[in-house]
Amino acid sequence: MVPRSEISACRPAVRPRSGFPRAPEIPVATEPRLSIWPSITLCATVWLAAELLLLLFRPGYPFTMRGALDSWIYAGFQWDIRGQMREFGQTYYASRVALFLPGAILHAMLPVTAATVAYKLLFSAGTTAAWAFVARRIVGWRAALFASGVGPLIPVFIFTRHNDYMDLGVVLYGSLALACVVGVWRSPRPRLWRMALGASGAAMIDSNLSSALIVGPGIGVVYFLLVPERLTGRVVALTDCIAGAALTLGLLSAASAWAGGPPWVLGTQIKALFWIGGLNQNPWAPNGWAWLLAAVWLLLPFAALAWGAVVVHTLPAPDRLASPLRALTVGHAVSLGLATLLEWRGMGVLFHWFYAVFQLPLTIPVLIVCATTRSPARIDATVFAGLAVLAAPIASINLSPQFGHLCRLLHWPGSPNNFSLVLGLVTLLAILVTAPRRRAGHEGEALAIALVLCTVPWGFHTTEPQHRLADRQVLAHDAFQFLNTHFAPDSYRLWLDAAQPDGRALSSTKLYGYRLLTARPFPERGPDETTGRTVIVPTLLGGGERILAIVRQRWPRANAHGARILSLHGPSGLGFDFVCFSLVEPVPDPEAPDAMPATRLIHLRHRRGDSYASHLQQSIYGSSSNTLEFAAAAPQFTRTTSGDHLATDFIALPPCAGPAAPRELTLVIVTDHSAEAFCVVQTDGYRDAVRVPLNFAGRKFFPVKLPAESRSLRVYFGSEVDAPVALPIEVNVYETTPPAV
């Protein structure tokens, strides 16, 4: 018989709480947190080296192309977000806040050149970091290093940054959304990743709403295949994504409302999408299918899809890369398939390269994962040799004619892209044949770089003066601010002089100038769209007299009133002569000594009989009562809400003589300095007859035309900001139409 003491000695000192024995816990071998920083630093160094290499051989790439149109509209929003929102806030251009808000912040802190370069580096760093993160999670640090070096130098991506269009935001935020999907995969904190996924997706959709129909479903398929969840988990994940998207759209809408734009950023894009969808126009129908022979930008997405399909088919099921690569490939197939379907319907999402690059967030990760699969997990000089090979065409083209032989070699007479297309198809064939047989080495990286090189003729062959693009960007910025200072919004129209291509960029920053220049250039267009406004023709320095001679020859001298030339000198000898003229009769000054008799209907003057205090009625909707001060040199108005305003009572108009005809009035405003306020003349039914921004100093007079049936009018003041603004020291309204006798 065993003694009780020996039995007690065999029992454990601490009993488990449950009745079942537990297995001993084995400590998990975790990688030290600080050990990843050398690898991150190395990837960042490689990315920075690639960007410096690009800036060295192609210094003009961060600056907007001269021939672009819509790109300069977004540049204008970066230079003056509040002014552009006030003028063009109801257009779909103004709704893409996620695209131009980072640039607006940078331009508010830095000079124009530094802000432009920083803006492009910011988008490049974010996109490349997303690709490197996906490659690191799926393959390892070697793939992340390859993505950091090759990603910034991909010609399609370079041209996207150079073009400075809405596809730049789709590529950045779409890549970040895919990185968040991979972050959810096997993450201990998936909720934060899912909310970040919703935020990135919302920013991508805000950059271009059509990306929700092309890239969004592909990223959603990647999430569905990569992250195994039950139904309740899917519902929770969807809730987290919606919360992140709602928060982002709310912040973007708040930023838009603060800048003076619409309070809901996607509203105008939704309207525009329905309008474009109703056009039913096929952009490539006149040329048939011939455009495919020159569409080198389609080579990369379709080649990456084919490569991914072959690698997924050859990988054994237990391989750790099989599941994530399959998810990426299927998601890319869905995205590319939807784009092909829309192209078949005639939407032009593959015909136009700036829509085709929507595929980059899925194309590049698939390409990098396939290129680095079945290679040893080490870093050697082969990858950096590949980067040097990729940089060779850049140097060849930008150092022409000394090293222009490679540029000429890649061109095919008659069709520049045919040779590149054939070379790319041969490279793709080599990839597909050798992919199932590769076990080690860096053939994958080499073939990926060769495939990327096939897009060089499309992305790099340009005659733009690279060394002058920075100066031209500064010139366009200075001219933009010059016009904002000298002319009231919507008071002028920019008319393009064909001899001054830099004027094309400047005209595109203003939507009404952009619409005018897309028609016939000066002087081939009639004056129908410029009647009642100042016409401004930007031309070369010293060329203003030539334009002025054309104006006087084409139109009667009596109609070209107030013609003058304003000169702006920019950097490096660049500059503009702004030829300004009007195609309408000048507004007569009713207070001039030789003016015809006029009836003064409204008279407001500061410190002269207290006419402001006795005539203005305050409509204040906030809690403050101290909104109007008369102690300063000019009346000071401080609004409490955006609806606050000051207005006179409606006064009765004297009856007109003769038959009913529009009444002609003149508004005379005298102000000490510019203010973010406005003056409105209203007629019956609170209808605005004229709205004048008070962004000037001095004495100006403006024509006011009232309908013949008008019986009364009043003057109305409002403010654009919450800070105190100065009102005019004198306001007069004269009736220039002879009244009844």
Radius of gyration: 33 Å
Q: What is the beta-strand fraction? A: 5-15%
Largest sheet: 6 strands, antiparallel
User: What fraction, in percent, of the residue positions are helical?
Assistant: 40-55%
Total E-strand runs: 17
Shape: elongated
Q: What's the multimeric state?
A: single chain
**Total individual domains:** 3
Count of DSSP H/I helices? 27
Average pLDDT metric: 77
Q: Termini separation (Å)? A: 138 Å
Low-confidence runs of at least 5 consecutive residues: 13-34, 375-388, 393-416, 458-465, 523-528
SS-derived structural category: alpha+beta
Question: Summary?
Answer:
It contains 27 helices and 17 strands.
Task: Describe, in plain words, how this protein is organized in 3D.
- With about 750 residues, this protein is an alpha+beta fold.
- It is built from 27 helices and 17 strands.
- The strands form 4 sheets. Strands 6, 9, 10, 12, 13 and 15 form a 6-stranded antiparallel β-sheet that branches.
- It is elongated, with a radius of gyration of 33 Å.
- It has 3 domains: about 35-275 and about 295-460, no CATH class; about 480-580; about 600-735, Jelly Rolls, CATH 2.60.120.
- Helix content is about 50%, strand content about 15%.
